DNA sequence: GTAAAGTGTAATAGTGTATAACAATCGACA
DNA sequence: TGTCGATTGTTATACACTATTACACTTTAC
């Protein structure tokens, strides 16, 4: 699809070739590995070697974090994917369904149901694109903005718990490392 | 991965093996944050603020890593959950279905299908428990062991890619941080 | 102007997970 | 020893998420 999209007010496209700032990771902390050994911890059989496999560790952490996040924003009636769509549309209004889906790694066919629901709840709306009659320009409604605002407050509570669990000084380290695993490992 | 794991007799409960000491995290590395700005990277709209949310970052990383892992062990016909069951049964033979399910965070009702399939493929078997007629003592078959061995080789290739992507010196840091997000954030 | 590509949509299937119910069995204990 | 609550494996079922295919409509490229 065409590159630069809406240049609302936030001037995009100023991607200085050389990364603006390198992030110097210098985390120094004492960490207690939960437990080692092939045994039982709190009545549950230890997963042993599994815990040293990045994939497994990632999955368990992700599930755990999502569990907390979902419970935290439950009052908004939003699920994680819906929340991320609102954040994205708030940041960059006018995106097409395909653009949002691609950015979030969602199949555009599956995105239909998602945006349908957001529209049904009056949180977002499809406006006809002025330049392309095939697509819609997605927008947040006022209700969408207020809901998002509340969701952000709740998300902050959740994020605070995550920071506490992982250690505030280590959060940026974690994010930096995770970003390296972003979409696609070279093969 | 490790070098241990071989003497898979039935001696569980042999504590201490991995240094139960404290893990000193001292990662020092230069990391290029993928890209900043509300813009487009390679034709895809940037997710912006989303990238700073641990949950989102975790999810994307997990999906990416799993994708690679699944593709890598595809030749064994194993899916991640099945692989983890084999690893667990190899490490601790004789576990019951409930024990394995609990250790892996799987609903025991859903584990039935999983072990059924492993048994159907001749990789594991249900032996009658000698002490409890309600449950089974799960075991790997010879075929299960050889399949697991091959899967481990393939997993090593996968893990190597992960290490390269995240930086070999940072892997233990990542694992330590992820373990802190393990099951359940305090609420 | 015609062919190729992109957009939104529906239909469908596959997978993963959660819940409820149930028979068989175990464990505790009066 | 008999009863009752808890546990184990199991089936059935439902829901969320994902992937694939197909299609009409529109845009883009040659």
Overview of this protein structure:
The structure is a homodimer of 187-residue chains. Helix content of chain A is 46%, strand content 12%. The model of chain A is unreliable at 1-38 (pLDDT under 50). The first copy, chain A, has a single domain (43-178), classed as Winged helix-like DNA-binding domain superfamily/Winged helix DNA-binding domain (Arc Repressor Mutant, subunit A, Orthogonal Bundle). A two-stranded antiparallel sheet of chain A has the order 2-3. A two-stranded antiparallel ribbon of chain A has the order 4-5. Chain A is α+β, with helices and mostly antiparallel strands. In chain A, β4 and β5 form a beta hairpin. Chain A has six helices and five strands; from the N terminus they run βββααααββαα. Chain A has helices at residues 54-72, 80-91, 97-104, 108-120, 142-166, 171-179; strands at residues 23-31, 40-41, 44-45, 124-128, 136-140. Chain A is globular and about 55 Å long. At the A-B interface, β1, β3, α1, α2 and α3 of A face β1, β2, β3, α1 and α2 of B. Chain A binds a DNA duplex (30 and 30 nucleotides) through α4.
Given the structure, what is the number of helices of chain A? 6
> What structural class do helix, strand and pairing data of chain A support?
alpha+beta
Poorly predicted sequence stretches spanning 5 or more consecutive residues of chain A: 1-38
Most strands sheet of chain A: 2 strands, antiparallel
- How large a portion of the residues of chain A is in β-strands, by DSSP E? 5-15%
